[in-house]
## 1
Amino acid sequence: MANKHFGLFAKQVEEQMNKQPASILIADDDSNVLMALKLLLKAENFDVTAVDKPFDVLQLIERKNFSCVIIDLNYHRDTTSGHEGLELLTAIKKRDEHLPVIVMTGFSSIDIVVEAMKLGAVDFVQKPWKNIELIGKIQAQITIGELAQKGSRLAQENALLKSEGQLKRQHIVADSANMKALLTQIELLAKSDMNILFTGENGTGKSMLASYLHHCSTRNEQPFLSVNMGAITETLFESEMFGHVKGAFTDSKEARIGRFELADNGTLFLDEIANIPLSQQAKLLRVLEERQFEKVGSAKTQQLNIRIVSATNADLSLMVEQHQFRQDLLYRLNTVEINIPSLRERKQDIIPLAEYFSEHFCEKYRIENKTFSDKTKDVLVNYTWPGNIRELSHIIERAMFLSQNDQIEVSDLGISGVEVIDNSPEPLSLNSASLDEIEAYFIKQRLERFNHNVQETIESLGLSRSAYYRRIEKYKL
Ligand SMILES: Nc1ncnc2c1ncn2[C@@H]1O[C@H](COP(=O)(O)OP(=O)(O)OP(=O)(O)O)[C@@H](O)[C@H]1O
């Protein structure tokens, strides 16, 4: 009955640990003890490794992740004092302070137990052990260990989210045909596990769309972690990306979980990917190819289940030609490449975006909602937008404060006339213009007025669709 109960428990632990059976390392110099423990723990569905020398314990924990270690306190060198076991305990804790260690001895004295606890043992078992008690202690330590690991992972994730503020899901404005098509493409690709490279000018929305891709994917319950590759210094690259164990460097007092591990099972977004130094590109390539890595200072290889999305405003093919970016890395990153059009290539989005930002900032600063005058709309639509959507958002934010009334005028935008592309038709002399010239002039003016929205232009001119297209053809507009 008891056996059944614990079998069930081990199964639950197994499920919690991503379907991997919890792995236990046991060390004792008595082969009968090892045999008995092995039989007991295997029957509970644990993955058991048994060794009879302290040295083997140290070698193994450097290579493999164990959920719990059970060690005898006495070995061959001196069979009663417990000192050899305490030395082993100290050495284990030096290598991995979070690994739960349960100590076990047949010759226990209160002093040795107290000493073991002081050195970091999490529990104590007296030989001959009671099966139910031993398994109960293991079960408790595995659960505590998992919670501690989750806690430290969450703390690091939270720190990253706070510092980078990337994961907020936002409203995506996409009225233009090309952005609508692009969103549909992203939604379809999201369901695959392919690596995606977003390209496009600064401020076009690459980061936002990477986050949207994650949101639409089957990984959306898992982390979306963004790393600005330009912000990671060459010397810290490995430690930041792969993490490090305690003591890996002279000043590393704490172990650190790297970005790859933090994003495991989710999506890792490598922003500004062109900024990764050539010397580190090979290391990134290996992780992408083999889906495994080692922490700095550790020989343990860790497996990864991760989707990589990256972004750049650089021409990576040109960088490959100039030997600044590895071609094999580019091929790994751009299984699919998505180019985000600049704002001047999707004029239909400009006014909806401006209205969206105006609403957003009015709400944020608790001011009355403002509208845009027709002239202001014209200027917004015809400006070149070198900084794309980010620039538009800044200009609208500023205009909210500069405008003195409830309508935003051109002067509130602070855009110098030089950068505005003047698409308005040449002025027409009604005294000398032909009927055709006048008609062409008005159609052109209306098209500009309605940001090339055909339906609105047709309605305002009172034409049928076919009559409109006949004229477009005739006047070559
Ligand atoms: N379609 C959109 N709808 C609403 N807001 C958008 C849209 N696209 C971008 N933005 C906003 O514009 C700003 C810039 O977007 P984002 O940071 O994603 O651009 P980026 O291309 O990654 O920029 P950079 O190349 O400089 O890193 C952000 O505040 C983002 O929320």
## 2
Amino acid sequence: MTKPDLAISRIMTVVAVALVDGDGRVLLQRRPEGKAMAGLWEFPGGKLEAGESPEAALVRELREELGIDVEAACLAPATFASEPLGDRHLLLLLYACRKWRGVPQALEASALKWARPLEMHGLDMPPADRPLIGLIEALL
Ligand SMILES: Nc1nc2c([nH]c(=O)n2[C@@H]2O[C@H](COP(=O)(O)OP(=O)(O)OP(=O)(O)O)[C@@H](O)[C@H]2O)c(=O)[nH]1
């Protein structure tokens, strides 16, 4: 029998969102100093907590990170990334969302930026995010 190349316990599931404004721009946040990959631009989101659904985790993360309220029903599954990350394997589930309440604030990030996909190609983003840019472009 062939051995699986990854133990399930090493998979890290992360949920993130492309918040899209009326001009077709997407919100990115900059990872703060002191964290892995500090200074890189990423989609808001984070890890699932035990027992949380992906949508509930994202609703929570968006409140914690940006101070906005999003309905789970407004989170549309968009695409995903699958990428080795240190000694783990990252499964990044990316949603798209065009409706939220409140004005996003950088409560945890060092900065926020509304960017068009074309601009995103020129930004430093985590390796898992790079293949997602073209897919987001096609979705908008
Ligand atoms: N939110 C988010 N995380 C991403 C993206 N791309 C990517 O590789 N990641 C990785 O997925 C993980 C997200 O987890 P997180 O935000 O909860 O964790 P963190 O590293 O900030 O640290 P923490 O454990 O102190 O919360 C990080 O390892 C982060 O580098 C992305 O676009 N958005």
